Every structure is written in C-alpha cells, then in structure tokens.
TrEMBL record, chain A:
It is a lipid-anchor. It comes from Astyanax mexicanus (Blind cave fish). Belongs to the G protein gamma family. G proteins are composed of 3 units; alpha, beta and gamma. The keyword Oxidoreductase does not apply. One of its GO terms (cellular component) is heterotrimeric G-protein complex. This is Guanine nucleotide-binding protein subunit gamma.
TrEMBL record, chain B:
Belongs to the WD repeat G protein beta family. It comes from Astyanax mexicanus (Blind cave fish). It comes from the Eukaryota. This is Guanine nucleotide binding protein (G protein), beta 5a. WD repeats lie at residues 59-100, 149-190, 191-234, 235-276, 288-320, 321-353. Residues 12-39 form a coiled coil. The keyword rRNA processing does not apply.
Length: 68, 353
C-alpha cells in the first residue's frame, strides 16, 4: 500500500472512531431495566418459556402411532 | 511561495496516535456508564423453573452436513441447505419434503425464506446468492427459474430478505456485506469495515428501523445503517470468530455466539457488552444463537453437539439439550415462538418444543 493510500485509510479509521466516540449512551442500569421489562411484559406470550400444552402447540401434538 | 511539506509518515504517525487516543476515550465513555451488571438488576426476577424440551420432529434427507436453515412466516415450513449442494423445503409438521433444489456448488452455507413464502434464497462457495421462486407444481424444475442476485468475491456466509421479497442482504468471506435489489440484481449499498470474513448477519426487528448487525472473523460485531452504509456501532470483546448474531426481540440489544465458547449480549443504547453466557465446562464454539420471543431465553447451538439454553437476564444456564450426533451448525426459533429448529453436521434437522 502506498504512503498516500495509507493516510487515506488511517483518516477513515480516525473519522469512524470520532463518530463512535460521540454517540449518546445510557447507563447500563437503565438499559438493563428496559431489557428486563420487555422480558416480563412478554413472558406470558412466550410458548417456549411457559411450556404451552400439547393441545395448543402444533409441534407437541401426538403424531399418529406407527406399529414397529 | 514556500510550501510546507509534511511527510506521509509523519501524518500517519499523528493519525495513529489520534486513533489510539480516540479508542481510549471510547472505552472511558463506555466505562462511565457501567454502573451495574445485568444479572444484578435481574436478581429480583423470578427464577425459571425446569424446562422440558424435546425433539418433536427429525427431518432426514440431506446427504451431508446441514449448514443453514430458516423458517417460513407460516410457522411450519423450513428451508435448509447442506454441504451436499442441496436446498430442501420441508413441512415441519408432517416432516414431508416439499421442494428440493440441487445447487451447482457444494457447501451451501446460507439460505433464507422470502417473507411471502413464495421463494427461497441460497448460496455458498459459488460466491453468489440466488433466488428460487417456489412452484406449486411439484414436477416443475425449480433450477430453471433461478435468479442470480448477489455477487461477492468470496464465499457467501449468510443472507436474509429485508421486510419484502424485493431486497436481500448478504455477508461474505470477502469481508463485506451488501444490499441487493432482487429483480435487477443491482447492488444498492455495500458495507465495508470488517477486517476479515463476515460470517453472519441479522436484521433489526422492523419496528426499530433500518439497521442490521454483522459478526466476523475479526472478532467484531458491527451495527450498520442500511441506507447510508455507515457502521454506527462496533463491539470487540469476543476472543475469536463470531459465528452468529441475533437481535433481542425489542431491537435494543443483540446476542452473539463465538468460537471462544461464549455467547454475549450487547446493549445498543448502553453501547457495551452487558452479559456473558459461559461455563468452564463449555469449551467448544457456539455456532448459532436465537432468542425465545420474550427474549428471556437464549438458545445456543454448539460444536460439542449440544444446545445450551440460557436465562438471558440472570446469565445462568437453564437447560442442556442432547440429541444431535455432530456439531450443531444452525438454530432458529419459529416465527410464533412455539418451537425452534436446529440443523447439524449429523445431516439432520430437529424441531424442539
């Protein structure tokens, strides 16, 4: 890589880092609370979490028996 | 007029020190907001009970390793692709094969179902992503209607339709991701920033806007703006290749699975890793991850043939599922969350509920 293109590449890296350094962030405590709230609000609608019974989960319905 | 000549090497040195300073600043800014751990916040949440999850269907028919699978929006059809070059569409309720396509290459590493359910996309060592419209006529030769959409300069590692059948997002061993128009095959946007092969991608849930996350062999997970092509956030805490990335259902976070044997959760608003899912006894890489629809459970398929189920909030493992006889290579929860499907190097797919 020529010296000039190295400079261009490095400038892009610096530009990207400047952009990333300046974004708005929230505290982990707030972000974590919101993740948790989402889980709790949606828990009842989560069949894999609540263990939906055979009558309503199409995959748990018994298949026809086959003779071995 | 005397021109001041600055040697390129001086400029590079200055830029390098500025980039180091910025990286340090980035870490400091992130650390300032790290006031608590996710599992501490979750201490008061009810712990999860025992899980009974079993294999409810086994899909047999591939002649070699299953590499990728995707669910249809109808919650019952599945497309899968294999090292043997075959792409199969299954009815997961009945386990019947509905369509089969033979690709001109082996190692079909990526496949995806179109939102309409009327087409599938796939690709791999051919460096392309092709779309096959699915015909209701079982006798019709699907290969005849094949449309080549994406062209990369190395293998295709992942593909996904956006929220319509009209656009496809791809990731490649050539280190880039790209957005394509299906009808014309035109490249709409390309995404440069990974320093090595990109192995996986996931689109943000439609409510959260036009972003997607990608993971690569450079150990980085990048979040991209689909319209501008810009990388808006980048995370580098894994110690090896990132094999799988998946958004948390709210779109505010994403999980990753890596060859470093851990899965991690990154929160996008806190701009940092907020949880690591690991155990000393787990030493093999995680190949694929997905969330249950409430986001409380994280399913991880591993190279030690098992599937570990994690409590996302508390950081603990709640279940370990055995059944596959070789590496688990792909795993997706069904669109309505009633089941999840895993594909393996043991040539089979299993549907668990």
């Amino acid at each position: 890589m020529s010296a000039a293109s190295s400079v261009v590449a490095m400038k892009k890296v610096v530009q990207q880092l400047r952009f990333e350094a300046n974004i708005n962030r929230v505290k982990v405590s707030q972000a974590a609370a919101e993740l948790q709230q989402f889980c709790i609000q949606n828990a009842l609608q989560d069949p894999l979490l609540t263990g939906v019974s055979s009558s309503t989960n199409p995959f748990r319905t018994q298949k026809l028996c086959s003779f071995v | 007029m005397a021109a001041q000549e600055v040697q390129p090497s001086e400029t590079i040195a200055k830029l390098k020190s500025e980039s180091e300073a910025l990286k340090t600043k980035l870490e400091e800014e992130r650390a300032k907001l790290h006031d608590v751990e996710l599992h501490q916040v979750a201490e008061k949440v009810e712990p999860l009970g025992q899980f009974v999850m079993k294999t409810r269907r086994t899909l047999k028919g591939h002649g070699n390793k299953v590499l990728c699978m995707d669910w249809c929006k109808d919650k019952r059809r599945i497309v899968s692709s294999s090292q043997d070059g075959k792409v199969i569409v299954w009815d997961a309720f009945t386990t019947n094969k509905e369509h089969a396509v033979t690709m001109p290459c082996t190692w079909v590493m990526a496949c995806a179902y179109a939102p309409s359910g009327c087409a599938v996309a796939c690709g791999g060592l051919d460096n392309k992503c092709s779309v096959y419209p699915l015909s209701l006529d079982k006798n019709e030769n699907l290969a005849a209607k094949k449309k080549s959409v994406a062209m990369h300069t190395n293998y295709l590692s992942a593909c996904s339709f956006t929220n319509s059948d009209m656009q496809i997002l791809t990731s490649s061993g050539d280190g880039t991701c790209a957005l394509w128009d299906v009808e014309s095959g035109q490249l709409l946007q390309s995404f440069h920033g990974h320093a090595a092969d990109v192995l996986c991608l996931d689109l943000a849930p439609s409510e959260t806007g036009n972003t997607f996350v990608s993971g690569g062999c450079d150990k980085k997970a990048n979040v991209w703006d689909m319209r501008s092509g810009q990388c808006i956030q980048s995370f580098e805490t894994h110690e090896s290749d990132i094999n799988s990335v998946r958004y948390y259902p709210s779109g505010d976070a994403f999980a990753s699975g890596s060859d470093d044997a851990t899965c991690r959760l990154y929160d996008l608003r806190a701009d940092r890793e907020v949880a690591i899912y690991s155990k000393e006894s787990i030493i093999f890489g995680a190949s694929s991850v997905d969330f249950s629809i409430s986001g409380r459970l994280l399913f991880g398929g591993y190279n030690d043939y098992t599937i570990n189920v994690w409590d996302v909030l508390k950081g603990t493992r709640v279940s370990i599922l055995f059944g596959h006889e070789n590496r688990v290579s792909t795993l997706r929860v069904s669109p309505d969350g009633t089941a999840f499907c895993s594909g393996s190097w043991d040539h089979t797919l299993r549907v668990w509920a």
